[in-house]
Every structure is written in C-alpha cells, then in structure tokens.
Write a structure and sequence with these properties.
- There is one protein chain.
- By secondary structure, the chain is an alpha/beta fold.
- The protein has a single domain, classed as Vaccinia Virus protein VP39 (Rossmann fold), CATH 3.40.50.
- It contains 6 helices and 9 strands.
- The chain has a 9-stranded mixed beta sheet with strand order 3-4-5-2-1-6-7-9-8, with helices on both faces.
- Bound molecules: S-adenosylmethionine.
- S-adenosylmethionine binds next to β2.
Amino acid sequence: MDAQFWINAWIEGRTAFHQSKYNEKLLAYFPTLSPTQGQSVLVPLCGKSKDLCWLRDQGLVVRGIELYEEAVAAFFPENAFPSPTITRHQEFVTYESDGVTIDCGDFLKFEGSDSFDFAYDRAALVALPESMRKAYAEKVQTLLRRGGKCLLMTYEYDQLELQGPPFSVDEVQVRQLYGQRCDVKLLDRRELKVEGSRLGTLPSLREAVYQLTKRH
Ligand SMILES: C[S@@+](CC[C@H](N)C(=O)[O-])C[C@H]1O[C@@H](n2cnc3c(N)ncnc32)[C@H](O)[C@@H]1O
C-alpha cells in the first residue's frame, strides 16, 4: 500500500474506516493505561480521526501523523478548532491547534526516539501489508519511551476471504512484531459486526485489543 493507494482512497471516498463517533474500545481501554494530564500520545496514520479530540480532551498532548494533507487540513474546521498554524519542514507539513499537532508526511520518516508516553493504533497496523509491518512496528517502539504504552487494535479473519486493507493480523504476528521490546497483553477479543463496509461480508471477524508496554 503505497502513498498513492491512500491518496486515491481519500479522493474516491473509500474511507469507510473513518468513524463519526469516538472509538468504543478507545473509551473503554485507554483509561486503563492510566494516562495523566500533560502526557504525550502518538497517533500514527491518524487520518482525520475524531479520537484525536477525545485524547486531547483527556489533557494529553496529541501528535498525529498522516500522509494525506487534505484530511489533515479538514480535521481542524470539522472539529471546530481555531485555525491551525502551518509550518513546512523538509519531510513534513505540520498543523497545530489547541493541543493537537498533526504532521503530514510518511510516518516511517518521522524522526525521534523515546518521545511519547503513549501510542494509539486504531486501523493503522492493519492498514499496512505484511512487508511494511516490521518497519512500522519498529518505528512505533522507537518513538515510545521506556515504560510507554500503546493501545493496539487489530482485526482477525480468514485472509483468503477478503483482500486487505484492513488486513488480518493475529496474535502470533503481534507478538513477533512487538514481543522483543514490549510486554504484550491481550485486553479484549470478540466477534465484530460491521455494517456499511466490506468487512461486513466476512463470515467471521474478530477484533482484538492489546496493551503493549515498552521494556527497552
Ligand atoms: C485505515 S486509515 C485509518 C485512519 C485512522 N487511524 C482512523 O482510525 O480513522 C489509514 C490511514 O493511514 C494513512 N497512511 C497510510 N500510510 C501512511 C504512512 N506511511 N504515513 C502516514 N500515513 C499513512 C492513510 O492516508 C489513511 O488515512
């Protein structure tokens, strides 16, 4: 899934992943990570997710990264933020307003280490083909500080039944990607009913939620 795939998806309106409400698993499980006011949260491949607003409203300093600039630009007026300041660097165009910063560019080129207390991955890891997941997971873990926690949501289904994205990423793979540097704790796994998306055609679809805690 290269950048052009996602740009086309946005332009052609293939954005069933975008939710008009806060994600229920975010509301249920993010508080169990014990965030406190002023801590930072990384939201890779954030789209124009409303979840950024919820995280900001918890008093967190929110940093999203998204490659499609129109989605980034749309996020702020759609959620009644003051006009963002926009700065251009080499690899990224950065939008900032009222506690939310979104860097527009390729997440794999985002620099830093030990920078974030939390990460929130909804529809991000599962958006990537297998060949890109290792580099993605390495980047998330590098950006998290030691002891930092990531809330990760994945889908599990028979990959022969449907072409991703979203892709099926099972627990074995989650542990391969994250187990060397993180403690991996399964928080929830249940059958999911989805309407208005290709996922709704699957005979069986499960969603799993993990807490990853970075050891080193
Ligand atoms: C399935 S959507 C999920 C968006 C968001 N997490 C949500 O829950 O609505 C995946 C997003 O990742 C973005 N994306 C894909 N590859 C990327 C990359 N390498 N760097 C930054 N964003 C990327 C796409 O443009 C798309 O908005």
